[in-house]
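Bit of a strange request maybe. I'm writing a small parser for structure token strings and I need a real example to test against, not something I typed by hand. Could someone generate the tokens for this chain?
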Amino acid sequence: MSLFGPLSGSVFTDDATVGTIAWTSTANVAVRDKTYANAAMNVGDVSHYLLATGFGFAIPTQVTVIGVVAELLRTGTTNQLIVDSSIRLVVGGVVVGNERAVPTDQWASLTQRYRRYGGAVDLWGVPWLLSADVSATGFGIAVSATDTFDEGFGATAQLDHIQMTVYGAGM
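Reply from user aminoacidic:
Good idea to test on real output. This should exercise your parser:
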């Protein structure tokens, strides 16, 4: 098995194909430094996708992609309950594949922790994923969050860093 990464993305955009709340300061997820991309919400709100692409993978063509891992360094504001709304792959700039969100997994307030999605033999329901797809600039991850609890003053989903690792066979 070959391992490529973890690598950080280089292009971060707010994508309104889901949700109603925009992400601000999206470029802040490029490095782990406690500066955040933010989505400020009230109870029941769902954020847009934050698309992270441009990971710079250079997977040889003879490698068969067998798994993808995305790790999000995330947090929520104090006394709030931010959870995943949608976590999916981006291939060729398009959100694809199976849903990997865990809607019961709280984005811990006041502490940062990486949350891992996917695995060494998980193609996220995209069995046609090729080394060229992963190596292209339009490959990455789409992240959306929701506020499930509100004490009357809203909550903010915060992302500090996103990294991805690709697993391959045949080299």
